[in-house]
Amino acid sequence: MGRKKGLPEFEETAPDGFDPANPYKDPVAMIEMREHIVREKWIQIEKAKILREKVKWCYRVEGVNHYQKCRHLVQQYLDSTRGVGWGKDHRPISLHGPKPEAVEAE
């Protein structure tokens, strides 16, 4: 018995046969959709963790100048943590979604 070579292949898109209006119509597609959602959430969580480590490193390296030097990393981290995590699916998007971009007045 040997190990398989390479990494497993995952589909990056949602399953084809899933119907959100009637999720129990196809149980296999429902489970695939659940796995897809969980996989996407874990990817978002891990991206946020990586950005958090970068912010920590920047704070340590820059010292007292971290307000100016690390601002872009902090903004990326805050944007990446909005809507990330478990149990936020049924909350209004205004509470956990990305901030709306400010429209410039002409």
UniProtKB/TrEMBL annotation:
Pfam family, one: NDUFB10
Membrane topology label: Peripheral membrane protein
Superkingdom of origin: Eukaryota
Keywords: Electron transport, Membrane, Mitochondrion, Mitochondrion inner membrane, Respiratory chain, Transport
Compartment list: Mitochondrion inner membrane
Protein's UniProt keywords contain Cell membrane: no
Major location (coarse): mitochondrion
CC annotations in GO: mitochondrial inner membrane; respiratory chain complex I
InterPro entries linked to this entry: NADH_UbQ_OxRdtase_su10 (IPR019377), NDUFB10 (IPR039993)
Chain intervals for the UniProt region annotation (Disordered): 1-23
Family from the record: Belongs to the complex I NDUFB10 subunit family.
Name of the featured protein: NADH dehydrogenase [ubiquinone] 1 beta subcomplex subunit 10-B
Species the sequence originates in: Cardamine amara subsp. amara
